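Morning!

As promised:
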Amino acid sequence: MPELPEVETVRRGLEHFVTGFTFRSAHNLHPRVLKPASIAPLSAVEGSRIVSINRRGKFLWFTLDNDLALVAHLGMSGQFLVAQRDRPHPKHVRARFSLKRGFKSHDLLFSDQRTFGWLSVEELTDGVPQSALHIALDPFDKAFDRNAVIVEMKSRKAAIKSVILNQEIMSGVGNIYADESLWRAKIHPEIPACDLGVKKIESLIDAAVEVMGEAVTVGGTSFDSLYINVNGESGFFETSLAAYGQEGEPCPRCGTAIRRIAFANRSSHFCPKCQVKSRRKTKG
DNA sequence: GGAAATGTTTACCG
DNA sequence: CCGGTAAACATTTC
């Protein structure tokens, strides 16, 4: 379930294990793993050295030493795995890369059960691949302009949850962290963004940064294990979710049962007492 | 058996 | 242009 924190965890894992390595071979093992917009087959990366691993929102890419990038989106279920001899061969392997640096070598696998993820070879524009150019900066980017994002959000008539999920305004937030952020900021998901005060939108962005930052911290604690480190499992969900997936469970703040509504083709979870739609005050 | 689940893109309608 | 909705992609789990 990769959103920004999971993708960042994968990025850190890859940075640790494959930076400086050269692609010795690249094998495409599934007819849909290569994004149609890719300018070349996966084998185009053979012979290239990995300079850095980069991320914007949920888009991930390997910057190579030849102005190209191997771009990856994990979709719903994509994973990178460093193949290990003593581990069983993972299922749903869509691509296999053989890497080497000096006497060291290992295989990197891209596994994706539901095949919503993809890989592509792309050119970079100012260090950003073609397919991620339309994606807005995420709040962890050094160049992230918080005030500009607040102004943009405030100008939208759409429901605040749609706005915070819109990757072209601010990237990185998916359905889970949207619900968690809205819960922390005490905002009902269906309130039009333009009806919210600047302070409220500010607190929502801060909540998103906070909750995703915590998730990255938890996900990043597994650095001792090669396997866990790159597979994108954060372990965050089991203990720390206040709203997402908690329908019927008590709100950790007030004890009211969390509600689930179908919204924007997805589920939204919120506390009907803490996150009220109208600002009408109770009489008396 | 049916619904729901994660994300993105595209289409269609108002 | 904006926004809401749905469908498409695939598979597994409840």
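Helices of chain A lie at 4-18, 146-154, 160-165, 175-185, 198-219, 226-230, 237-240.

Hope this helps with the figure draft.
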